[in-house]
Specification:
It is a single chain. This protein folds into 3 domains: 82 residues, Probable tRNA pseudouridine synthase domain (Thrombin, subunit H); 233 residues, no CATH class; 152 residues, Porin (Beta Barrel), CATH 2.40.160. It has a 22-stranded antiparallel β-barrel. By secondary structure, it is mainly beta. It contains 3 helices and 28 strands.
Length: 528
C-alpha cells in the first residue's frame, strides 16, 4: 500500500556578522575509522565545535569539526565524509582573541569514551600549559521516529547534554571536567540510571609540576583501554618516569551508572620517551577488581605506543588475568583476555595503510542514534582483524577500502566484512563533494550488502552545509529471507550566531515488505 508523508524542515535566515580572524596551520597526525586528529604548535583560541579548513586553490573549504582538544592536538570529525591523509595541512581560523564558531554535528555516530585517552597516549599530550580557561556546551536533541509497521508507530526521544571544562581555576592547580546527558522517551517510564549518563566528572588538582590527583569519573591515559574509574587517582610524573595508584569502582556493566559494589584498586608505572618527532610510551598496571567486595578478577594491564620507525605508528594494549577459581579454590593463572593492536603506516605521501586487531571485551560508547542496518554492521565489525587503506592518486580523486575478519569465539560468531569507496572532493561547476561507497557483511545469520552515494555542499562561507544521501540495503537472512531497504537522507547544518548552532537530519526509508518510515533528528547547541 502506498502512503504519502511529509516532513518539515526549517531554515533560519538571519546571518551574523563574522569577526576578523587570523589563521593557524595544523598537521593531520592520525586518521581512525571515526576520528581525525590534528596537531598544532598549540591550540590556544581553538574550542570544541570549531571548524578546520583546507586550502583548495583560491578558497578555504570546511573539512573537520573539532570535538575535543588538548594543548597541542584536536580530535575532529569529518563534516562531509571527507578523507584525509596523515601529514596534510589544515587551517584553523582564530578570532581576535577567540576562534570563529561554526557548524555543529548531528551526533549520529557513536564515540567510544576511551578513544580520546588512547590518542592522548599517541601524541604524548600534556595539559600543564593550559591556564585559567573555561569552556562548555549545552545541547538539546530531539529524535523522532515514524514506523508504519509498529503498533505505536510514532515515538519521540529527547536528550540533554552538558559538557564543561575549567582549567587552572583562579590560576591555581584546581581544574574540573564533566560530560553528562539526560534522555527520556515520551510515554515511557525509565529509571534514573537508564536516563542519566555520566561519561566523565572529575575534580583535578596539580600540587606541583610532578604531582597530580583527581577524584571522580576519569579515564587514565596510562591505562586507556581499562576504561573509566570512579574514585581517587594519584600520579607522580617526571619527564621520563611516571607512577601512581587508584582506588574506587568501575561503572555498572549494563547502564554505566556508579556501582560502589564493583570496588577496584590498582597501581601503575610508566616510561615516556620523546626526541623531536619520535616518541614512545610504556605502562604496566596491576588491578584487583571485586564484585560485592569479593575478589572477582585480578589482572595485569600492559600498554605501549611508539613512532620510533619512520612513517610507522604503533599502539597496543593487553590484559592478562592472574586470578581464577577452580572447584571454589583460588588459583593463580596466566590468561590473555583482552588485546588491542593498531599499526599505521604511510609509505607514500598520498598513500596510507593501517592494520587493527581488536579483541577488547567491553567498549563503552556515548549515546547514538542509528537505524537497524547500521547498528548490525557496527556490532559485527568492531572486533577482529581490520585492514584499511586510503590512496589519493590525484587531487580530485581519493579511493580506498577496508577488510575485516573475526574468528568465532565463545562470545562472538565468525564474521567477514569489506568496504570500498571513491570520493571526488569537488565536482566542477557545481562545487559539490561526491562519495560512492559499497560495503559487504557476512556472518552465520546474515549476508548483507550496502551501497550509498553522498552529495555535500557548503553555502554562505560554510555557515550552512547541506548533505543528500541515498543508500540501498540488501540483507539476506537464512530463516526469514531477503530484506531490502531504500534509505534517503537529507541534512542541514546552520550556525545561527557565534555560539549557537542548529542541525537537522531527516532519514526516510522504504523496505521490501512495503513498510515505510522516517527519522528526524534535531540538535540545538549553545556554547558558553
Amino acid at each position: 500500500m502506498k502512503r504519502k508523508y511529509s516532513f518539515l524542515f526549517f531554515i533560519i535566515l538571519t546571518l551574523g556578522v563574522l569577526a576578523q580572524t587570523e589563521t593557524r596551520k595544523g598537521v593531520v597526525s592520525f586518521v581512525s575509522s571515526q576520528h581525525i586528529y590534528v596537531r598544532f604548535d598549540n591550540t590556544e583560541g581553538i574550542n570544541n565545535g570549531d571548524t578546520l579548513f583546507q586550502q583548495k586553490e583560491d578558497k578555504k573549504v570546511a573539512i573537520l569539526l573539532v570535538q575535543d582538544l588538548s594543548t597541542i592536538s584536536c580530535l575532529c570529525k569529518p563534516i562531509n565524509n571527507v578523507l584525509l591523509q596523515t601529514g596534510e595541512v589544515l587551517i584553523a581560523e582564530i578570532e581576535k582573541p577567540k576562534l570563529k564558531e561554526t557548524l555543529t554535528d548531528k551526533e549520529k555516530t557513536a564515540v567510544a569514551v576511551n578513544e580520546t585517552a588512547i590518542e592522548n597516549v599517541r601524541t604524548k599530550v600534556e595539559d600543564k600549559n593550559v591556564s585559567n580557561k573555561i569552556d562548555g556546551r549545552l545541547s538539546v536533541n530531539s529524535y523522532s521516529v515514524y514506523d508504519q509497521n509498529r503498533t505505536d508507530n510514532f515515538s519521540q526521544r529527547f536528550r540533554y547534554n552538558l559538557s564543561f571544562n575549567a582549567s587552572k581555576i583562579a590560576n591555581t592547580g584546581l581544574s574540573v571536567e564533566t560530560n553528562m546527558a539526560f534522555s527520556h522517551k515520551i510515554g515511557v517510564n525509565s529509571t534514573i540510571n537508564e536516563s542519566f549518563k555520566i561519561y566523565g566528572a572529575a575534580v583535578n588538582y596539580e600540587f606541583s609540576d610532578k604531582v597530580r590527583a583527581s577524584f571522580g569519573r576519569k579515564i587514565n591515559a596510562s591505562m586507556a583501554n581499562v576504561g573509566a574509574v570512579d574514585g581517587l587517582q594519584v600520579e607522580y610524573r617526571t619527564k621520563k618516569i611516571s607512577f601512581g595508584a587508584l582506588v574506587g569502582s568501575r561503572p555498572d556493566y549494563y547502564d554505566y551508572s556508579i556501582a560502589p559494589t564493583l570496588f577496584q584498586y590498582g597501581a601503575f608505572v610508566g616510561h615516556n620517551y620523546s626526541d623531536g618527532k619520535l616518541y614512545a610510551q610504556t605502562s604496566l598496571a596491576i588491578f584487583n577488581q571485586t564484585n560485592n567486595f569479593t575478589t572477582d578478577r585480578r589482572f595485569a594491564y600492559f600498554q605501549h605506543s611508539n613512532s620510533l620507525l619512520k612513517n610507522l605508528d604503533f599502539f597496543g594494549s593487553v590484559e592478562i588475568d592472574l586470578f581464577g577459581k577452580v572447584n571454589n579454590q583460588l588459583t593463580t593463572k596466566f590468561d590473555l583476555t583482552s588485546t588491542y593492536v593498531s599499526l599505521r603506516y604511510r609509505p607514500l605521501k598520498n598513500l596510507s595503510v593501517s592494520l587493527v586487531y581488536d579483541a577488547r571485551k567491553n567498549v563503552y560508547y556515548y549515546e547514538t542514534f542509528k537505524n537497524l542496518p547500521d547498528s548490525i554492521f557496527d556490532m559485527e565489525t568492531r572486533q577482529g582483524l581490520r585492514f584499511q587503506t586510503n590512496y589519493r592518486p590525484f587531487k580530485f580523486l581519493t579511493v580506498g577500502g577496508s577488510a575485516g575478519y573475526r574468528l568465532a569465539t565463545s562470545r562472538s560468531t565468525e564474521s567477514m566484512h569489506g568496504n570500498v569507496f571513491l570520493t571526488v572532493p569537488k565536482i566542477p561547476l557545481i562545487d559539490v563533494l561526491f562519495t560512492a561507497d559499497a560495503s559487504l557483511l557476512k556472518t552465520p545469520y546474515i549476508d548483507g550488502k550496502m551501497y550509498s552515494g553522498t552529495f555535500s555542499r557548503d553555502f554562505a562561507k560554510s555557515r550552512i552545509s547541506v548533505d543528500a544521501i541515498y543508500r540501498f540495503i540488501d540483507y539476506q537472512y537464512p530463516t526469514s529471507g531477503i530484506f531490502q531497504q531504500h534509505i534517503t537522507e537529507l541534512s542541514l547544518h546552520y550556525r545561527i550566531t557565534k555560539k549557537l548552532f542548529i542541525s537537522t537530519n531527516f532519514e526516510g526509508s522504504y523496505d521490501s515488505f512495503n513498510n515505510s518510515g522516517g527519522r528526524l533528528f534535531v540538535n540545538l547547541t549553545q556554547r558558553f
